[in-house]
Amino acid sequence: MFPTILIAATLTLTPPKAVAITPEVAAKLQEIAFQAAREGDAVTLKEYFAAGRPVNDANKRGDTLLTVAAYNGRADAVAVILKQKGVEIDAKNRMGLTALTAASFKGEVAIAKALVAAKADVNAANDSGQTALMFAALAGRTKMVEYLLKAGADPKAKDKAGNTPLSLAQTQGADDVVKLLK
Fold this sequence. Notes:
By secondary structure, the chain is an all-alpha fold. It has helices spanning 23-39, 42-50, 65-71, 75-82, 99-106, 109-117, 132-138, 142-150, 165-172, 175-181.
């Protein structure tokens, strides 16, 4: 057995110095956060936000962390992001798509429910007038269409080209979605 040695030391507690974050470091942190959103790494996202990093930063496409997490079906990441003060639920990317639109297109009903519970606009439209319901109908996402209708999505909405959720579902041969929309 090793002998125990006690070392007495006087500790002086001083407040930590603020760390300056250069633009290069900020860009790397943002890259890590977007990777965490894509992969559903809730722990990394929590640490990112605990360090005071912004919740609504956008990538080159204009996607926010919330949109990326929603598109990739990462419910845990979406939950962490939705808890952040000042999160913009209906932030639009460069194509005018929101996190709800992304979740709707991918058929992520649980995420759509979380977004709607956080007050996402079920009838938000992009510059072409396309809504989450239209994207769900186009993709043949029957369960999503059913949920969005229950959540108050407008089945009669028209985009600038005159398309409705019903006409989009018909063009894709999404018969179950067509039945819901008739």
